[in-house]
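Task: sequence design from structure.
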């Protein structure tokens, strides 16, 4: 399981991850090397790290030609977070706004000649490729 999740992991790293994350069980003290039972989920988390989080994003209603900025608050206990975004437009139309991401701020500029509803999905990805997503709708 650990090797599949992180190809190239060493035997020492696997051993340390498994033995370092056991659930201590009193009845196993002195009967097993670790004194506990294997916790595969904890071992996996120890090598892959915690997933990042994104604070909830609120839906927006915008007027034509209006620009709004949306701060994206993403956190990761294990290190740096990279943000990405994607747009989904309903009914196969062209998005009624342009969207850009600079650092951790989305800038949304509504068109003056199109209206409609679309969804922005933001993904936070950490250095271990763990992800979190949050989406919100924008109506122009």
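Answer:
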């Amino acid at each position: 399981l650990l090797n599949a999740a992180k190809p190239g992991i060493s035997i020492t790293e696997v051993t340390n991850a498994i033995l370092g994350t056991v659930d201590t069980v009193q009845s196993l003290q002195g009967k097993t090397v670790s004194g506990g039972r294997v916790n595969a989920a904890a071992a996996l988390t120890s090598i892959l790290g915690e997933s990042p989080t994104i604070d909830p994003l609120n839906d927006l209603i915008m007027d034509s030609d209006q620009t709004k900025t949306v701060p994206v608050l993403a956190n990761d206990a294990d290190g740096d977070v990279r943000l990405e975004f994607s747009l989904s437009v309903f009914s196969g139309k062209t998005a009624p706004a342009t969207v850009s991401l600079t650092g951790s701020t989305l800038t949304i500029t509504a068109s003056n000649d199109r209206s409609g509803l679309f969804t922005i999905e933001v993904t936070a990805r950490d250095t271990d490729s763990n992800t979190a997503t949050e989406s919100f709708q924008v109506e122009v």
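The radius of gyration is 22 Å.
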